[in-house]
Structures are given as structure tokens and as C-alpha cells.
Design goal:
The structure is a homotetramer. Chain A is mainly α. The first copy, chain A, has 2 domains: 54 residues, Arc Repressor Mutant, subunit A; 153 residues, Tetracycline Repressor, domain 2 (Orthogonal Bundle), CATH 1.10.357.10. In chain A, 75% of the residues lie in helices and 0% in strands. The first copy, chain A, has 9 helices and no strands. The longest helix of chain A is centred in the middle third of the chain and has 27 residues. The first copy, chain A, is elongated and about 60 Å long. Chains A and B meet through helix 6, helix 7, helix 8 and helix 9 of A and helix 6, helix 7, helix 8 and helix 9 of B. Chain A binds a DNA duplex through helix 3.
Chain lengths: 209, 209, 209, 209
DNA sequence: GATGAATGAGTATTCATTCAT
DNA sequence: TATGAATGAATACTCATTCAT
């Protein structure tokens, strides 16, 4: 960490331009229907350039997920490592972080889910698969720490912390994906924030002893 | 309704064979990566035959969702219309139905979700779009009735019944999709039932006044 | 051997149409510069159809070589198994067969050489690689038999029969490839037959004791 | 001719580095499958630099052939112009030269053959095409001189000297290419020298009156 | 109805070549 | 000179869909 050359910074910026273009098109049209040519055009590069930064389409998609997981991971750590909060407060702080993630980019979760529902890691470099794996586990472990602390202090119901962490995450992603999907059945949209808030409140009430 | 000729029954059976093959492959590999040829082979038909029963790939996929929604709708009605249960009992009965659906076919939900995240209904017949829309709304309305009753009787917290119905459904699908996706990160699997049970219990505790 | 259905015969005919188109274009423009689309057009099929008969471009090329090797193999066996000929007569009969092969299709050898100079069998099915290997070895073994017999009978110089077979084959392919290549330096062409005849005569004189 | 500035010498050295890299990769993978980037990496230059020394890929390839032809031409002249040798001795001296060429660089011939089988000179500068043409004809003419002398002195069989020169050359290249190609069918390798020696001995015996 | 061979538009990917630095 | 990032035309290959049998 520390000083990066201008070249490196420029390279990273271009990488991000591509990732942003891909995120936009993947969440607009889905992974399969978004073409590399469109993504290139959106990022204002030629198709060939995409392949200087990403091995192939799958790798571009997966790199997107890594970005998101890294962002989530950071937010989770901020909460867990805040010494001034008790477990319940951490749960509420978590809710705020969840909103923050959603506000930062409402499509993040949808993009992430594309990876998770894709059944094959065949075309990805081993390195990338390992990074995704590590980040995923780390995020859940961090989440589980909060529940562990709460259970130990007798504040939360006695359940395995991992299971609670899974449920918290399921609710988060379930709500976002569900509400997001309703757009296409012509429902009013943008209830996501409200529904999410209610859902997490109900969850918090449910896990209290 | 009423008497169907043998021909009609045979036709329906074949339709179902195709739908089952499609369900299997769509949930295994996703809509885009499953090919019509594979589906045909799985159903023991030739590719051309699929087009005698379904206008195109999108329509096959959507018809699948109709099937699932009809199944879910039936289960929901059974619960809601059972006069002998109070709202809380209905919630627990609902949990049992959810398990029933999952046991009947663990892939149902994954397949349904494919529809919901598809971004275009362009290739579907109007009739089919309307049927999906009606079934979706009906299912949620039915679910909302339980919460409405519970709120009116002062058993559940005061929230909009639709919102609670959405959350219930989000949790259900969120858990299944999340746990399902973990398989690919080499986690132990088949925790779905347990996690689902805990999640719904927490939810029920959370919605009680 | 045996009865083939009309379907099978038709399929084989179409396969041959494609092989002929490929042979023509590969020897005209070389493997890399001949496109699948051109080959399809030449064979009066659509590009997709080529892939119903051959897994990929490499496999199409290799199948071409198999054809040639099978033809050569047949001719060689005819000579070797002719009981009425002594070794020297067989060598002259071989010369005739070589002309026959060349007359049957002057491009055969050039096409075959494309395979031999290609460095990777990676994209070929194992089955095809094995077939090529078997045919190649068999052809050489058959050729070696003639020399073995000649050496045993004291007619030919004492050298390893395999080595003589290799040299015979080298001369054959060397002459054809060399004379063929001269066309592109604007030399008069079609000396191949004459040069080949002289070369083999010199060889035969050289191997006699 | 004469004194070259340091600059010029340096330039020539770099040119040679590129040619060597190209020779290696062209004979390993063939012209089409060897990429300019690989060649650049092998030569420890950047891709752009290659274009400072060669107009394009075809020109690089053709320049390679010129190098080889010049080398071969030198060796041939050494033999032909040696006044102390009679025709038969020249033939044997030629055999030694052939080994010398092969030992100097076993890939030379394979690379040369790439040029000869290339179907288009379109992308080459006229100057280069003419140089290749001149060198090729000169080499053969030189070779033919030996046979001419041998025929005139009544030592060799009565055939057109050009034809004998062609056959000599065919045998040389045929053996090398053939033995080289066998590596890929998993045969033991490095028999080339032995086979070549036997082949030329048989040839010499065959051309003697 | 059922077949499955044939189609051909659509797309990911490669790579010779250029050019701003 | 030398670089190497960027280009974009070229092309192998796929797969939903059709239609003659």
C-alpha cells in the first residue's frame, strides 16, 4: 500500500470505467443479453481493450462481484470493530450500513446475485475464484461476530451465529431482489428502502431474547 | 372444464414432460445457458417438438412460472381459507406449506426467480403476461389477508399487510436462493430447511405484538 | 461392410461435400486463411451445418488427413499383398500406386502435410488422433514389409526396412511439396510427375544391391 | 560495403535478434499461429519495435527466408567452386554441407518451407520478392552445375541437371520435414541425421552411371 | 403430430497494426 | 528510437427457430 505510479492509477481508473459500464449493462439487461461490444461502447473503449483488462466476459462479471464484496466487507468491519456499540446497537448500525450500500449503488446486490446464481466458475482464473471465496466467507464471519457477541451477552436468542448471519443476509438480499423484480410487473417501485427497514426491524425484534 | 378427450390428456402430459425438463435445466444452469436442444433431450423429444407446445424459449420459461405460481397459489388458499385457524396458527401453517412446496420440488423457487429477474416480457403472448400478473398479485393478496386479519385482531404489529406479505415472501425466497447459492462456494448444503425454519420463526416472533 | 440406410449414405455424401470443399480451400489458401464461411459456401451449406459434421475447424482438417491416409493405406496393401510380385517388382508397382494417388488428387499430399506440420492436436477428439496415429504407423509398416522382404532375399542393400520406408516416403512427399511450391515462384509447373518418376527410379537403383 | 557505423551494426544486430525469435516461433508453431507479440517477447522487444525493422508480419517471414537462402547459397558455392574436387567428390562434399546447415540450425529448413508453401506474396515489397526469386534460382543453378559436370564427364546418369538438382533438394527437405513431423506422433526423434545420410547415399548410388 | 437436419444471425475473442508519449 | 496501450476488423462457433419429410 502507499504510493502508486501515475500509470498504475490510470490503469485502475480505466478498469473501473469498464466495470461501471459492465455493471450498468449487466443489471439492465442481464449477463447474457449484454454484449461485450455494448459494454465497450458504454465505457468508450474498443472491444479489444476490454480483453486487456479482463480475461473474458465471465471474468469481467466476477470482478464486478469482487468489487461489491470488498465494499460490503469494509462496511461490515467498520461496524463490528466499533468498540463503543453493544450488540443491539451494532445491529442497528448494520441496518444503516445496509442502507448506505444500497444508496451507494442500488444495483450492487443484483449484480452480486448474478454471480451467485451462475453455476460455473470454469472460465475464471483460480485467483479470482479464491478471492471471491475468501471475501464471501470473511463477510459472513464478520457478520457472525456480532451475533456471537449478542448471544454471549444474553441479548440475542440462542442460535448458531452463522445461521443468524445467513438469515440477516438472506433478508437483505431477498428484499432487494424481490422488490427489484416487482418493477417488471408494473408495481410502484422504490419501496425497497421502506420494506428493507421494516424487514430488518422485524428481524431485530425476532432475535432479541 | 370437465371431460377431456384422451388426446387432450396426452397433450397435457407431454407439455408437462417438457416443463419438467425445462425446470430442471433452468434451475441447474440458468435460463440463458440451458439450450432448447438439451431440454428436448431431457424430455426425450426432438427440438422441433418443443415448438409445438410452446411458442418460443421465453414462453416455455414463462409457462413454467405459471405452473409454479398456480401451485403456490393453491397452497396459500388452503391456509387462508381454513376457518379453524387464528392468524398466528395460520402463520405457522404457512410455514408448513412453505416446507411442503420446498419438499415437492426444491427448484421451484429458483425457477420462479428466473422469471422475476428477466428484464423483458417482449416475446411473451399478452395472455401469458396477464396470467402471470394475476397469479402474482393474487398470491400476495392472499398472503396479505392473513396479516390483515392478524393486525385487525391486534395480534400482529401495525404494518401494512402487503408489506408484511412482501417481507414474508422475501425471506422465503431470500433464504432458498442464498442457501442454494452457497453450494457453489463449497459450503455444506441442505441447511436450507433448517435455516428456513429459523428464519420464519424469527419473523413470526418479530411480527407479534 | 454391409447395408447402410439411405440416411447414412446421404450423411456420408454431405460429409464428403464438406471435405472436398475444405480440401480445395485449404490447399489453395492454406489452413489459416481459409475461413469456415468460405468452406461452407463452397460446399453449398450454411456455416452452422459444418459443425454438425465436424466438431471444429481443426477436426475438419484432420478428418481430411484421415481420408488421405486411408486411401494411401489401401493402395499400399494392394501392392504388398500381391503374391505374384518379387520385391523389386513391388517397388515398381509402388511407383505406379504413387502416381495413382497423385492422379486421383494432386492436392492430397499437400493437405496431409498441413496436419503433419501443425504442432497441436489439442482441439482434436482423442478418437481422431488415435485413428491418424494408427493409419500412419500402419502405412509405414506396410511399406517396410516390402523392404524387409527385399533385404531378406538379398536383393536390396542391408539397411533397416523402416529407414528405407521413411526415405521412400520422404522422397515422395518431398518431391510433391517441392515441385508444388515452385509454382509460386512462377516456374513452369506440372513437372511433378516426371520429377517423381526420376526420383523414384534413382531411389530404386540406389537400394539395389 | 566496407565500414559500417556503430549505429548500423547495432541496427543489424537487433534485426537479427528479431529474425531469430521469428525463426524459432515460426518453426515451432507455424506462421499463422505465432503472434507478433510472442515474437516480440522472445526477442525482448515491444510489439511496436518489430515494425521499425520489418514492414509487416509477412515481410518478417520473407526476410527470414532470404537469410536462409543466403546461407544455403554460400555453402553451395563453396562446394561448386572448389576446383580440386571431381563431381562425385562434390556430391559427397555437398552431403557434408547439408549436415553443416542442419547442425547450424535444425529449424532453417522448416522455416524456409513456410515461405514456399505460402500462397501469396501480396504483402511483400517487390524488392524482397525479387531477392527471394533470384536467390532460389541461383541456389538451384549452382546445384545443377555439379550435376551438369558429372553428366558431361560421364560419371552420372544422363538426366537434366536441373531435374537432378530438384530431386537432391527434395530429398533433403523431404527427409527433414518428414522426420521432424514424426515427433508429433510420438516417435523417437533425432534420427534425422542418420536418415538424411542414408537417403543421400542412396541418391548418390542412384545417380552414378 | 413428430422429427431432426439445416439455417444464419448473433457474439465472444484474437491479433496485426498504429501512434501518442 | 522504443514503447505498449489501444484499436477494430476478422472469424470461429453457437443455438433458437424453421420446415420438408
Amino acid at each position: 500500500m502507499g504510493i502508486k505510479s501515475r500509470k498504475e492509477r490510470e490503469k485502475e481508473q480505466k478498469r473501473r470505467l469498464i466495470l461501471n459500464a459492465a455493471k450498468k449493462l449487466f443489471s439492465e439487461k442481464g449477463f447474457s443479453k449484454a454484449t461485450m461490444e455494448e459494454i465497450a461502447k458504454e465505457a468508450e473503449f474498443s472491444p479489444g481493450t476490454l480483453y486487456l483488462y479482463f480475461k473474458n466476459k465471465d471474468e469481467l462479471d466476477a470482478s464486478l462481484s469482487v468489487e461489491i464484496l470488498e465494499f460490503l466487507s469494509d462496511k461490515l468491519h467498520e461496524v463490528v470493530e466499533n468498540q463503543e456499540l453493544d450488540p443491539l446497537q451494532k445491529l442497528y448500525a448494520l441496518k444503516e450500513k445496509v442502507f448506505e450500500v444500497y444508496n451507494y449503488d442500488p444495483d450492487l446486490l443484483v449484480s452480486l446475485f448474478h454471480l451467485k446464481t451462475r453455476k460455473t466458475f470454469q472460465h475464471l482464473t483460480r485467483k479470482l475464484v479464491e478471492r471471491i471465496d475468501t471475501l464471501s466467507r470473511d463477510a459472513l464471519k464478520t457478520l457472525a461476530k456480532i451475533f456471537d457477541e449478542g448471544i454471549n451477552k444474553g441479548v440475542f436468542i440462542e442460535k448458531h451465529p452463522n445461521e443468524l448471519a445467513d438469515i440477516f443476509w438472506s433478508i437483505y438480499s431477498g428484499v432487494v431482489l424481490w422488490e427489484d423484480s416487482k418493477k417488471f410487473l408494473n408495481e410502484d417501485k422504490n419501496f425497497i428502502m421502506e420494506t428493507l427497514e421494516t424487514a430488518i426491524d422485524i428481524f431485530i425484534k425476532g432475535v432479541l431474547k
